[in-house]
């Protein structure tokens, strides 16, 4: 997903509206591979800001992952905005603390690098199939959303590792 911005750098245009899409199969986020079930779509406007550029855009994609509680496959739509300066010259970070800032060289901007950098702040920490997902029983392993617990006796939550027994006494 690259965009040529020669018209901005040559001052032929003040802004460029764009609508880009890239079809990739998976995305690695902190060591976890997520299958993409929709193309990565980014649209917005890039404008001149002195010798630099300002981007205001929207990123839209859908990933497939496992529910954090019951491990069933679930699709998770992700949509977020990017307001960022693309700097062609040196800058003081304190002047741009309310915006994302990316260094660019040349007359072509690779939006996949920007999406990869901003995705970490916009991915959900836990993907759930539903807010009321009950998860998997830690005793018998059944999916509590569809079946009742098959444990002979209820799982004792006070059953702790004997090495930590002294720590439990401190809580009493």
Strand element count: 9
Radius of gyration: 24 Å
Class by SSE composition: mainly beta
Principal-axis shape:
elongated
Q: Can you characterise this structure?
A:
The mean pLDDT is 86. The protein is elongated. The protein is 12% helix and 39% strand. By secondary structure, it is mainly β. It has two domains: 2-119, no CATH class; 134-172, no CATH class. The strands form two sheets. Strands 2, 3, 4, 5, 6, 7 and 8 form a seven-stranded mixed beta sheet that branches. A two-stranded antiparallel sheet has the order 1-9. The N and C termini lie far apart (59 Å). The protein has helices at residues 6-9, 111-119, 165-171, and strands at 2-4, 15-22, 26-29, 32-36, 40-49, 52-66, 73-87, 100-103, 108-110. It comes from Peptostreptococcus porci. This is DUF177 domain-containing protein. InterPro entries: YceD.
Q: How would you summarize the topology of this molecule?
A:
Layout: E1 2-4, H1 6-9, E2 15-22, E3 26-29, E4 32-36, E5 40-49, E6 52-66, E7 73-87, E8 100-103, E9 108-110, H2 111-119, H3 165-171
Parallel strand pairs: 7-8
Antiparallel strand pairs: 1-9, 2-5, 3-4, 4-6, 5-6, 6-7
InterPro entries: YceD
Protein name: DUF177 domain-containing protein
Organism: Peptostreptococcus porci
Briefly say what this structure is.
It is built from three helices and nine strands; from the N terminus they run βαββββββββαα. It is mainly beta and 172 residues long.
């Amino acid at each position: 997903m690259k965009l040529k911005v020669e018209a901005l750098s040559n001052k032929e245009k003040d802004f460029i509206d764009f609508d880009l899409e890239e079809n990739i199969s998976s995305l690695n986020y902190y060591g976890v591979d997520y299958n993409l079930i929709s193309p990565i779509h980014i649209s917005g406007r890039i404008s001149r800001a002195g010798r630099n550029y300002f981007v205001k855009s929207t990123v839209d994609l859908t990933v497939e992952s496992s529910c954090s509680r019951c491990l069933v496959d679930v699709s998770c739509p992700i949509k977020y905005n990017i307001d960022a300066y693309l700097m062609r010259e040196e800058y003081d970070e304190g002047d741009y603390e309310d915006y994302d800032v990316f260094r660019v060289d040349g007359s072509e901007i690779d939006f996949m690098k920007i999406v990869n950098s901003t995705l970490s702040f916009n991915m959900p920490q836990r993907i759930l199939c539903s807010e009321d997902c009950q998860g998997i029983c830690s005793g018998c392993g059944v999916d509590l959303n569809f079946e009742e617990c098959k444990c002979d006796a209820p799982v004792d939550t006070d059953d702790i590792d004997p090495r930590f027994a002294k720590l439990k006494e401190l809580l009493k």
